[in-house]
Amino acid sequence: MSDSRPIALDAMGGDHAPHEIVAGAVHAVRERGLRVVLVGSPRVLYESLAELDATHEIPIVRAEEALAMDEGALASLRRPRSSIAIACHLLRRGDVSAVVSAGSTAGIVATGKLRLKTQQGVLRPAIAVALPTLPHPTLLLDAGANAEVKPEVLVQFGHLGAAYAELAYGIDAPRVGLLTIGSEAEKGSKVVRRAHELLEAAPGLHFVGNVEGYDLLTGKADVITTDGFTGNVALKTMEGAVRYAFDELRQTIGGSPLARLGAFMQRTRLRELSRRLDAEAHGGAVLLGLNGTVVIAHGSSKAKGISAACRLAADLATAGLVAGIGERVQRPHRSR
Amino acid sequence: MSDSRPIALDAMGGDHAPHEIVAGAVHAVRERGLRVVLVGSPRVLYESLAELDATHEIPIVRAEEALAMDEGALASLRRPRSSIAIACHLLRRGDVSAVVSAGSTAGIVATGKLRLKTQQGVLRPAIAVALPTLPHPTLLLDAGANAEVKPEVLVQFGHLGAAYAELAYGIDAPRVGLLTIGSEAEKGSKVVRRAHELLEAAPGLHFVGNVEGYDLLTGKADVITTDGFTGNVALKTMEGAVRYAFDELRQTIGGSPLARLGAFMQRTRLRELSRRLDAEAHGGAVLLGLNGTVVIAHGSSKAKGISAACRLAADLATAGLVAGIGERVQRPHRSR
Question: Which Gene Ontology MF annotations are present (chains A, B) (predicted)?
């Protein structure tokens, strides 16, 4: 059963806004059969749509302001009529099923909290990112919404992530790990050590113990809970390291004509791999814990990344992510 | 001018102790012209030396106890006669120029602090790790000695790392970056935001601002300061991600016989690359801020890793790392 309401797409957020965002909307509508509403400056968006011969396919909702990519949390207060604020407003009113934006993460988080409010029972919203493990992604959260959290919040992030993993990947009783610096319970900061105790005692949560940085890409846990500072550093370190390793290896192997030819013949598989490792292809990060589904696409997203983000947003809305989280956090003591 | 005293090598610490440690000592002596003293059980070590026909080349200092790899900080109190404790004792007495151990990091840190004491003026010792950037490594510290630190300590880690970078790589006024989650000064946790202010005002320190996880391998800073929790997670994330990317790429490319043949012909360059990325080849992490140079080799080190660690320890001792750090932390207000 699919949610038939459209996705509200913030057309003014992102390094390549608005043109690539509009192109992404067109792709989502034409190739994925989704319904999308563009939020932004009508004049600008109409032009972009006209270029793609799509003025009749995608409606525009007016928002004359926008948050710049370098604007943070405070800007969301200063600009109540920004494109992301209007998109959240549409979601709040029930006109759309979810919001997608490639704008400034801090701006999206602040605007989302302000306009949509935190879900009942949720202590702190968190950003969940899907890491490219197989057979299904590992969810890392928080990837940057909260630089500092209490132990209870780390436990709840486990629940938020578990709800996501259940609904998005159909995992029964997702394995939840705590990111820290050693496998023993007594390793880590005070907050993390206390969170370990609470996680061990948490009903309805399949806690598999501490995980380390090594384990982000090994699939040892389905959900990895951490504060937004550590999670953000780890995520960016991972992205940087993968890019580095690829560049180095490509340079080394690229030196041999024979290897180059071989790699050429493996193009499809190489492309598939880089697609799997590409954050964009996953559709982006999800802001969990608000009264509505908000997908944060990568700031550098082009049309296909935006389209994938719309797909993700639609799927999560259809799966009932907000309700699923509500059930988990309001009845944490149910037994499984 | 070289320090002619030998290196004390903890022969009982490490996943492959004692045999690979002894083999590493023999390599260091024969191939690198270093002087090494093995610390551990004489009976066991004599046998290992005999197998390598090296009983006359390397002296043994008796230590009948050892810390197990899974033993932490407390064990160092329980075992005052452990091999690492005796090695530190030799260093304290001035019989050796430095200590090398592949044993449990927590055990080495605790024993080192207890036996060698923290250097005058140093707030907290830190573990510095050399990341494989070019043209010279980037130093990341703290990589795990302190799960929680005050802002002042993050500033001092900058000084410890800068002293290391100056002496080991000959860098003048090393660029110091602060690891956090955004380039703006106001990003990060309370501790990190305060550290940013202090670093900006710190005399004698070339602070280049915030760096993010992406920057660990880009050479944007010569020294990256962070707490031991974040540093350890980032380091292990990096190692895991590099391994992952290599495995994935190898699998993808390995599928084509032509590519395999090409890679085969590039063997030397590939080997060189994996050597550069291999933590072992760098000789390991260095525990900075004690009254004596302590090198922590990777727990999984084999002979060549141990030999490289002995080389690093000897070089740092000769360069006068302890004195260099003392100068920096006791005269932080000198102008450069």
Answer: phosphate:acyl-[acyl carrier protein] acyltransferase activity
pLDDT tens digits, residue range A270-305? 666 666 666 555 668 999 999 999 999 999 899 999
Taking CA–CA distances from A105, the nearest residue in chain B reads B182
Contact status of A217 with chain B (Cβ, < 8 Å): yes
Contact call for B234 and A216, based on CB within 8 A: no
Instruction: State the nearest Cα–Cα gap between A237 and chain B, in angstroms.
Output: 4
Topology of domain A1-122+289-319, per CATH? Answer: Isopropylmalate Dehydrogenase (3.40.718)
The CATH classification number of B124-281 equals 3.40.718.10
3-state secondary structure of A88: helix
Q: A74 touching B, CB under 8 A?
A: no
Q: What is the per-residue pLDDT across B13-61, written as a single tens digit (0 to 9) for each?
A: 999 999 999 999 999 999 999 999 999 999 999 999 999 999 999 999 9
Per-residue pLDDT at B260? 66
Amino acid of residue A61: V
- Pairing outcome for strands B138-141 and B60-62: unpaired
Q: A230, B229: Cβ pair inside 8 Å? A: yes
Give the Cα separation of A319 and B118 in Å (integer). 56
Options 3.100.10.20, 3.40.718.10, 1.20.58.220, 3.40.1160.10; CATH of A127-279: 3.40.718.10
- Span(s) in chain A for CATH 3.40.718.10: 1-122+289-319, 127-279
The answer to whether the CB atoms of A188 and B218 lie below 8 A apart is no
